[in-house]
Write a structure and sequence with these properties.
single chain, 577 residues, alpha+beta, seven-stranded antiparallel β-sheet, 19 helices, 21 strands, disordered N terminus, binds 6-diazenyl-5-OXO-L-norleucine
Length: 577
């Protein structure tokens, strides 16, 4: 039986374009997000927002407000990021979560920098071939939908740990806006309605009564009150991470796992630990980038790409055939390494020094033919799923936080924990469930990312912080969109520092994506002219037009404050003060 891409993973973010390939070697149809969002996935104006003191940009204006509320109370950027993260779990259940995981990148005004990896891990009972049908040898869809798809959640451990180390306010204070939003409710808008309508798989599970009353997605204008989630957040406020990983919430989670054939146990939850990492520090023409190391591939792949591009000075004009070609060839080379060599550093030796070195980039750059596309060699590629959310935070002192968090698919695996009040992730699909077979994002990954109990699945999340040539924070940016996170985040940064665009223009500019395999350059309308497309084809590039590539939220420092821009193709909001 062929493995169908469930609707659950298709609705997703207002922007996501799911170009996924079938696990069985067949090519999954490229899905135009417009199909799933009533044709509304189009570029809309996102007014840049100015704040003299601080700024939060996220996929939910209510969650951004929660963050600025904490800033106004005297909280720092980490306090506000944690407040925003918990609020997203309430107001943006599509991707905001406490049943998933993520990565937070922190840069403090005093120069310190830190990163925390709160990626999910494979449960202890996970096995390498747990998603392969024993009879047919083919991949099932159990890494995507239902109880078996979840990794052990890391979000609560990561956010509470970040707050304890770098925050300044008590957890209960920081959680207050999220608890209020869950308890008092908020009005369902058309974005939430559409995301539910596109993810009907949720209605198979326990969240159906809350999110699909009478079998229909919550109507626009309904007040969504989440009493169970409010209670869970109150328990976390009182007990910290232990309130999630032990006691009544953990028991509710495990009871639902057992009821539905999942494998996460109380022991799995008790053992979960977020990991502090040293951010990758790289440079690009005098700018400094702090990016996320493994278990995310985001930082290494961006660094490798930008190091290659740095060899070409100046870069050609935006929209030209030569620029598009160079960008594509740089992404191709970085993704070839990514898909083959990266995995959880606790389990595989990642050649990070080499991959991020300028010398290595020089050899890769030397291999680029300026007039012909290189063919990606056939190989076992890796994969990525859908849905995620990025938020950026800046405070008045100049501390900044860049965070990306995910359930993977929209509403994760669809499973909602009764009494707990939250959705569980389907992050297990980020492993190479069958090394060499494409995942939901068409990524083909190798052994380095095979399933092992306790291992983190490789991510593409790339929460990034860029300092200007004087060492002051310039940009706080990241995205959702599986492997497109890496290309979009890189492009927004290049648009600002190479093409001198404002942040609003940089985010609005049409995007490109190449992930080595499939060997196709995907592009948004307007990325280049028809004449340039002809030239690119003549150079040997296969082109595919898409309607949306990723969902980014960014902040840029300007004279006198911060500019925040939410994804211009989606919803959400930047809120400053
Ligand atoms: O960690 C990752 O790379 C994926 N789970 C991210 C999924 C994603 O961005 C889906 N969103 N559009």
């Amino acid at each position: 039986m062929s493995r169908r891409l469930p609707r659950l993973v298709l609705a997703l973010v207002p922007v996501a374009l799911l170009a996924a390939s079938c696990r069985h070697g067949g090519v999954r149809p490229t899905v135009d997000i417009g199909t799933y969002l009533g044709g509304e996935a189009k570029l809309v104006e996102a007014q840049p927002v100015f704040g003299t003191h601080g700024m939060v940009a996220s996929n939910s204006a209510l969650a951004s407000e929660a963050g600025t509320e904490i800033l106004k109370q005297g909280g720092n950027a980490v306090d506000a990021a944690v407040a925003t993260g918990f609020a997203l779990a309430v107001t943006y259940p599509f991707a905001g979560n406490i049943g998933g995981g993520g990565f937070m990148n922190i840069h403090l005004a005093d120069g310190r920098s830190a990163a925390i990896d709160y990626r999910e891990i494979a449960p202890l009972a996970a096995t390498r071939d747990m998603y392969v049908d024993a009879t047919t040898g083919k991949l099932t869809n159990k890494s995507l939908v239902g109880h078996l798809a979840s990794g052990v959640p890391g979000a609560v451990a990561g956010m509470t740990e970040a707050l304890a180390k770098y925050g300044s306010l008590p957890l209960a204070t920081v959680l207050a806006p999220a608890i209020r939003l869950a308890k008092d409710g908020f009005l369902v808008d058309s974005s939430l309605f559409r995301s539910l309508r596109g993810n009907r798989a949720v209605a198979q599970f326990a969240g159906k009564d809350l999110f699909f009353p009478g079998g229909q997605p919550l109507a626009v204008g309904t007040r969504l009150v989440q009493a169970d989630l409010a209670h869970t957040l109150e328990v976390i406020a009182a007990r910290g991470a232990a309130g999630f990983y032990t006691g009544e919430v953990a028991e509710a989670l495990v009871a639902e796992e057992q009821r539905g054939g999942g494998i996460i146990t109380l022991d799995d939850l008790k053992r979960y630990k977020a990991e502090w990492r040293t951010p990758i520090r790289s440079t690009y023409r005098g700018y400094t980038l702090f990016t996320m190391p493994p278990a995310s591939s985001g930082g290494i792949t961006m660094t490798e790409t930008m190091n290659i591009l740095e060899q070409f000075a100046p870069l050609p004009r935006f929209g030209s055939a030569t620029y598009t070609h160079l960008l594509t060839e740089a992404f191709r080379r970085a993704f070839i390494d990514r898909n083959e060599k990266l995995g959880d550093p606790a389990f595989v030796k990642v050649p990070m020094e080499q991959l991020t070195s300028k010398a290595y980039a020089k050899t890769l750059a030397a291999g680029i033919d300026r007039t012909h596309a290189t063919k990606t060699p056939a190989f076992k590629v890796a994969a990525e799923p859908e849905h995620t959310t990025h938020y950026s935070v800046a405070d008045a002192k100049g501390n900044v936080v860049s965070t990306t968090t995910t359930l993977n698919g929209g509403y994760g695996c669809g499973v909602w924990i009764p009494k707990g009040g939250f959705f569980m992730n389907n992050e297990m699909d980020d492993f190479a469930a069958q090394p060499g077979s494409p995942n939901m994002f068409g990524l083909v990954q190798g052994e380095a990312n095979a399933i092992v109990p306790g291992k983190r699945m490789l991510s593409a999340m790339a929460p990034t912080i860029v300092l200007d040539q004087a060492g002051k924070v310039l940009l706080v940016v990241g995205a959702a969109g599986g492997p497109r996170i890496i290309t979009t985040t890189t492009e927004v940064i290049l648009n600002v520092i190479e093409h001198h665009m404002s942040l609003a223009d940089a985010m609005r500019a049409p995007r490109l994506h190449h992930q080595s395999l499939p060997d196709t350059l995907r592009y948004e309308p307007g990325a280049f002219s028809d004449a340039v497309a002809d030239s690119l084809r003549a150079m040997g590039h296969a082109l595919q037009r898409t309607n949306g590539l990723a969902n980014a939220n960014g902040i840029m420092r300007v004279n006198g404050g911060w500019i925040g821009v939410r994804e211009p193709r989606g919803t959400g909001g930047a809120v400053g003060y």
